[in-house]
């Protein structure tokens, strides 16, 4: 299967280990992975803050970059959610029905990593080994927009050496929400404090999730209070073998 890596802005600029781990994992499972060099921001930030017109060139560029692959895989629920639920809408609002049709075609075979592994490849044991106590935070976009359900948990349960600990009130938002954390800093911080308190009760050494944005928010908070809990992307755990 010819797979394109949709790296996302955060992975490209700040969390490259998540993108690298995604490639290593998929190649270990026997698939060819390519990085389309023309990819840029998918436009999610623009759309979420009301700049739909400005997002049109980004949607067009994304469609151009990812057309022709058997599958497009990203280590991000929020960016995949944008591709599936925003791109065609943005194109239609701009009156470009041709772009909307192409965006729908690309979106139809664009997947968040865990759903690609479980739903498309049909695997939940990827041969990973990660000897740590881990708790999982289900990110809002993956949970509510994509409906990935327990797929990340199914994958984590098959990781050798890993002790999975349930996170209390796991489905509560961590408080990031992109520009929400900037525009509503006090509320965002209060939500983060609740999330960190719940993480502390698990006794986990690692908090994992499928979105680097949430891990950045949670990890920053945990670092500031000196908790000692690390944040590690789901892809990095699944790619680990020693």
From TrEMBL:
InterPro entries: Cys_rich_dom (IPR004017). One of its GO terms (cellular component) is cytosol. The keyword Transmembrane does not apply. The keyword Aminoacyl-tRNA synthetase does not apply. Keywords: Signal. It comes from the Bacteria. It holds the Pfam family CCG. Residues 1-19 form the signal peptide. Residues 3-82, 134-218 form the Cysteine-rich domain. GO terms for molecular function: oxidoreductase activity. This is Fe-S oxidoreductase. It comes from Mycolicibacterium mucogenicum (Mycobacterium mucogenicum).
């Amino acid at each position: 299967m010819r797979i394109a890596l949709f790296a996302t802005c955060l992975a490209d600029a700040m969390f490259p280990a998540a993108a690298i781990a995604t490639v290593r994992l998929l190649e270990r499972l026997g698939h060819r992975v390519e990085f389309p060099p023309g990819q840029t921001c998918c436009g999610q930030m623009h759309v979420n803050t009301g700049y739909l017109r400005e997002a049109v060139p980004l949607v067009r560029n994304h469609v151009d970059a990812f057309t022709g692959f058997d599958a497009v895989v990203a280590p991000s629920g929020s960016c995949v959610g944008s591709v599936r639920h925003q791109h065609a809408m943005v194109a239609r609002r701009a009156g470009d029905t041709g772009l909307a049709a192409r965006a729908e075609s690309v979106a139809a075979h664009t997947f968040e990593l865990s759903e690609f592994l479980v739903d498309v490849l049909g695997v939940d044991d990827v041969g990973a080994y990660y000897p740590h106590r881990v708790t999982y935070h289900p990110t809002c976009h993956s949970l509510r927009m994509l409906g990935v359900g327990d797929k990340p948990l199914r994958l984590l349960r098959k990781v050798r050496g890993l002790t999975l600990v349930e996170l209390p009130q796991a489905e509560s938002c961590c408080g990031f929400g992109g520009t929400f954390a900037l525009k509503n800093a006090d509320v965002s911080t209060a939500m983060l404090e609740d999330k960190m308190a719940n993480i502390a009760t698990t006794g986990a050494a690692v908090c994992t999730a499928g979105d680097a944005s949430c891990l950045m928010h949670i990890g920053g908070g945990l670092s500031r209070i000196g908790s000692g809990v690390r944040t590690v992307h789901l892809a990095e755990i699944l790619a680990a073998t020693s």
